Amino acid sequence: MPATLPRKLHLPTGRVVDLERTGDPPGHVPTLRGSVHALAGQVVRLRNEAGELVDPESLALEDFHVLRSILTHAGLLAEQSVEVPCDNCNEVRALRPCELVEPGPFIDGELGDPELDERFPFDKEHEIGEAQLGKLKVKLRPVTVAEARPLHEAIDGGRLRVTSALVRAMGIESLDGETLAPRIARRLQRIDDSSWDSLTDLLDAAYYGPRLRPWWRCQECGARNELEAPSLREFPALALPRDDQPIAGFPDVDAFESAVRKHADALFAQLGVRNVALTVELGVAECDDGGVPLLGSYDPGEQEGSGMPSASPEVRLYYRTFRSMYADEPYDVEREIAETIEHELRHHLAFLSGWDPEDEREHEEISREQGRRVGQSESLRRATRAAGSDVSEFLRRTWPLWLLVAAVTIAVILASR
Length: 417
Ligand SMILES: [Zn+2]
Ligand SMILES: [Zn+2]
What we know:
The protein is an alpha+beta fold. The protein has four domains: 8-108, no CATH class; 125-208, no CATH class; 253-355, Zincin-like (2-Layer Sandwich); 362-415. The chain has 14 helices and 13 strands. It has a three-stranded antiparallel beta sheet with strand order 1-2-3. Helix 8 (253-271) crosses helix 10 and helix 11 (357-374) packs across helix 14 (401-415). The site of one zinc ion has 4 residues, from helix 10 and helix 11.
């Protein structure tokens, strides 16, 4: 069931608009310019807080993209589904990205998160391209829907030619100190592919905030992944499945296992731990309750006499998580191995003592992160709804995490009174 259309929305630039339904949704997936028409009275009309009509052409691009995401989320604009692989296990899912966008913070005006709501620094120069090909310095400026029109028409038409009109529409203020659009256009026509890719990534980051990269949960392994919403963007990123190719500089399985053994011997002795099994898992990594693939995990096992078959406590290290983290950004693998083993052994010692504050802290952190995305008011609404309806039904329909999120949110609110 599609969500209902919110009456009022807070937008990333601080603008607040009222939404008024005026017509039926078009029966097809709208283009970028088609979405402008949808906001200009074809499907909804926008008004400012004084009740005056807002021309969608005057919107900042960031605000426009949020509006079309929320309209799509509410079922008033259609969206193509996209097939995306899970970062952790490569299982492919077909998803409609805007269905996953959390509208709560836009509806409730809770857009103060230091990371999720950070504005793009338009006043700064940004480096693009690869070091060996020569880096380029780019400065962008905020662009309105009207200004971006040549770009949107080119994309809707399926033909992108870098002209000075396009340079202006892309919001490129300067390229390596050059500020004249025709000259910037000529340079861009000769730019190498990787510099072009990093330029379009920069534009994407400038005009789509982090809240338009919602999470989805893999049904296969439980991992939480991000994807881009809406699926129609000026410069969409390609979703690449992670492969199992060796990564330069990262230890192979044998070298990894012997590093694990070396550090384990030292750490077990140092912490006085015995009788804990240690394994390196080479398959798909388990995830924490928040869906983040784990580097390591601790399982206390089953004690004799508990009624279950006894099993010794176990610490597990996940080779693939170490590897994909290295592929994202190289780090000191030996040190991370040692820290992970020590971290899990401390969970073991805490378990033996009967209280694991670190485990509680980790769970709170997961709920807090979730709450920042969903929004505080929306977390409360969901908790209230859950309490009012049958709880087991609620648990079946949504993630068990919601209860935890709500509990933490309520605790935070009570503490701040
Ligand atoms: Zn998965
Ligand atoms: Zn831990």
